[in-house]
Design a protein that fits this description.
single chain; alpha/beta; eight-stranded mixed β-sheet; four-stranded antiparallel β-sheet; 11 helices; 33% helix
Length: 319
């Protein structure tokens, strides 16, 4: 749909029923939009709901309520035919390239499968398209005849990326795409993703817990805590002037290679453990660990407000 954002998420919630007790509110009402050609980073601690959001967006996770619109098409509640048609415009790169590939399929068969299933290419035309995709992702055309176990982890992730690009999607969802790789090859894969995103004009949702990686590849950053968004801001604004105390704590925890700079960094102590998503705290869900918590934080959930260039859910974003 012309003029629509590449992705619009509205009040998205994913709750898991529990046999005894309240449901687990893994994702609990988040909203954001992603424009074409833009990369949005989704960050937060393990268990905050980042991967659940990613899977819900591409239709791999049942949504409790809310809306997910990809290029103007509603995904939530769509029938099988409508969802199948919409999935051509959105693809996902998973965390582990080993389990993402069928060990019994050659690389050429894996990369060409989306084209074959959609009836877009066969025979010599299919082989040519596969060769172009492999070359674009830094592999050789002759690699199409090999099997996944014959490649390194970084090469396998290149194969997964080539497969994701086969249908030229408008939206690419990357769920921790480099966390399972050796440090030595992470930069190569990140640079490949940045180059491909620019070349194809895709929108990209980049899920990660690594703030250094997010700073390198993303235009905006959304910070997630306990199933909810705490802050959403342009990359430079978030890293230079974070508004939410949780964002400040995350940034303070990133080690600096320079010992002098490390000693000069402000310390933001967090006390206690992350509450259970089955038993959310009243008021602000971060107040149980926040060093700035006041009585109002325990009683009233903060409104989503604009502060400078950031959107933040905090009663005291300027302190």
């Amino acid at each position: 749909m012309s003029g629509a954002p590449a992705l619009r998420v509205t009040d998205l919630a994913v709750h898991y029923p529990a046999r005894n007790g309240p449901p687990v509110r893994a994702v609990d009402g988040i909203s954001f939009a992603l424009e074409a050609h833009e990369t949005l980073g989704l960050v937060g601690e393990s268990g905050c709901g980042k991967s659940t959001v990613a899977r819900a967006i591409v239709g791999l996770q049942t949504v409790t309520h809310g809306s997910v619109m990809v290029d103007g098409t509603e995904i939530v509640g769509a029938g099988r035919a409508a969802l199948r048609a919409a999935r051509a415009g959105m693809q996902m790169v998973f965390q582990d390239p080993v389990t993402s590939l069928n060990p019994r399929m050659t690389v050429g068969a894996a990369v060409g499968e989306p084209l074959l299933v959609r009836g877009l290419a066969r025979g010599a035309a299919l082989r040519e398209r596969v060769a172009l995709l492999l070359t674009e992702c830094g592999l050789r055309p002759e690699d199409a005849a090999r099997y996944p176990h014959q490649f390194s982890g970084g090469q396998r992730q290149r194969i997964v990326i080539a497969r994701a690009l086969a249908l030229r999607p408008a939206l690419l969802v990357c769920d921790e795409p480099v966390s399972a790789l050796d440090v030595s090859v992470r930069a190569q894969i990140l640079n490949l993703l940045v180059d491909l995103q620019r070349a194809h004009g895709m929108a990209c949702l980049f899920v990660s817990h690594d703030l250094a990686v997010v700073r390198h590849v993303c235009d905006r950053v959304a910070v997630m805590y306990l199933g909810h968004l705490a802050e959403l801001a342009p990359r430079d604004a978030l890293f230079s002037a974070p508004r939410h105390p949780y964002t400040r704590a995350l940034l303070a925890a990133v080690p600096e290679p320079d010992p002098v700079a490390q000693r000069a960094k402000p310390r933001v102590p967090l006390v206690g453990e992350i509450p259970s998503p089955a038993r959310m705290p009243s008021g602000c869900r971060f107040h149980t660990r926040c060093p700035m918590a006041q009585p109002v934080c325990r009683e009233t959930e903060p409104a989503w407000r604009e502060v400078g260039a950031s959107m933040v859910a905090c009663h005291f974003p300027n302190e």
